[in-house]
From TrEMBL:
Belongs to the UPP synthase family. SUPFAM superfamilies: Undecaprenyl diphosphate synthase (SSF64005). Substrate binds at residues 38-42, 50, 54, 82-84, 86, 88, 204, 210-212. This is Isoprenyl transferase. Gene3D superfamilies: Decaprenyl diphosphate synthase-like. GO terms for molecular function: ditrans,polycis-polyprenyl diphosphate synthase [(2E,6E)-farnesyl diphosphate specific] activity; magnesium ion binding. It comes from Ruminococcus callidus ATCC 27760. CDD domains: Cis_IPPS. The lineage of its organism: Bacteria, Bacillati, Bacillota, Clostridia, Eubacteriales.
Length: 256
C-alpha cells in the first residue's frame, strides 16, 4: 500500500520494506515465530569459531525482539535451544547457555518496556540459576500487555505434545475428564503455549526449509517465510520484508 493514501496514519515505527510498502497494524500477524538459524555458518564464513556466531545471533535477537515490540507485534517467539541441541559439543552448548544467562541478567529492560516474558520447554534440565531467573522474569512481567516475548529453551514440539498427553492422561485417570470430552482445545490448553495464539508467520532464515520440531502443533496453519540470509544478518529490514510478504498472502484455513 502506498503511504500517500494514509495522510493521518502515524508512520513512526511502521514496518516498511525497500519498495516503500508499509504494513498496517491490522495486517500484522498475531504471532511471529523465529527459528534463529545460521549462526554457525555465519561465523565459519568469517574464519571464526561457531560460538562467535551465536554471540552475534544473540545480539540480533535482542535488537529484533525490541523492534517487534515497537512495531506493535503482540506475540513473538524465538527458538533459542531445542531438545536436540544437547547433541552439540559441550563447549558450544555451554556458550549458548552462557549467552542465555547474560541475556536473562539484562532482561529488566524488557520489563521496563512492559513486555511479558514467557519461557516454553522443559526447564528441568537447565541450570538452577537459569530456572530461578526465568521464574522471576515470568512472575514480574505477568501483567504486562505490550507484547508477549516467548523464548523456547530446551524445547521440542513432540516433547511438548507428549507432556500435554501425560497431563491430560492424569486428569482422565483422576476421573476429572472423560476421554470423549478431549478436544483440540484441550490439547492446546495443555501445551506450554496455553493461552497464546497459534503462529501466523513462521520465519526461518539460513536457507533450510524445515520446521525442526518448533511449535509443530501451533504452526498447523502458519504461513512460512524462508530466506537464505543467515540469522545474524536477519535485521529489521529483513523482518519488514517478511511482514510485507505476509500481508499480501491469502489465508484460507482450509476454506475457499
Ligand atoms: C542455530 O544456528 C542456532 C541455535 C541452535 C542457537 C540459537 C541461539 C542464539 C541465537 C543465541 C542465544 C540466544 C539468546 C536468546 C541469548 P546453527 O548454530 O545451527 O547455525 P548453522 O546451521 O549455521 O550451524
Amino acid at each position: 500500500m502506498n503511504d500517500m493514501a494514509l495522510p493521518f496514519f502515524n508512520k513512526k515505527n511502521v514496518p516498511k520494506d525497500e519498495t516503500g510498502t508499509i504494513v498496517l497494524p491490522e495486517q500484522l500477524p498475531q504471532h511471529v515465530g523465529f527459528i534463529m538459524d545460521g549462526n554457525g555458518r555465519w561465523a565459519t564464513k568469517r574464519g571464526m569459531p561457531r560460538k562467535f556466531g551465536h554471540r552475534e545471533g544473540a545480539k540480533n535477537f535482542k535488537d529484533l525482539s525490541l523492534y517487534c515490540r515497537d512495531i506493535g507485534l503482540r506475540n513473538a517467539s524465538f527458538y533459542v535451544f531445542s531438545t536436540e541441541n544437547w547433541k552439540r559439543p559441550q563447549d558450544e552448548v555451554n556458550a549458548i547457555m552462557d549467552l542465555f544467562w547474560d541475556y536473562l541478567c539484562e532482561a529488566d529492560q524488557y520489563l521496563e518496556r512492559r513486555v511479558r516474558m514467557i519461557f516454553v520447554g522443559d526447564r528441568s534440565r537447565l541450570q538452577d540459576r537459569l530456572q530461578k531467573r526465568m521464574e522471576e522474569l515470568e512472575h514480574d512481567s505477568r501483567d504486562f500487555e505490550k507484547m508477549n516475548l516467548i523464548l523456547a529453551i530446551n524445547y521440542g514440539g513432540r516433547d511438548e505434545i507428549k507432556h500435554a498427553a501425560q497431563e491430560i492422561a492424569k486428569e482422565v485417570q483422576a476421573g476429572k475428564l472423560a476421554p470423549e470430552a478431549i478436544t483440540e482445545q484441550t490439547i492446546s490448553e495443555h501445551l506450554y503455549t496455553a493461552g497464546l495464539p497459534d503462529v501466523d508467520l513462521l520465519i526461518r532464515p539460513s536457507g533450510e526449509l524445515r520446521l525442526s520440531n518448533y511449535l509443530i502443533w501451533q504452526c498447523a496453519y502458519a504461513e512460512y517465510y524462508f530466506t537464505n540470509v543467515l540469522w545474524p544478518d536477519f535485521n529489521r529490514n529483513e523482518l519488514n520484508k517478511a511482514l510485507a510478504d505476509y500481508a499480501q498472502r491469502g489465508r484460507r484455513f482450509g476454506g475457499i
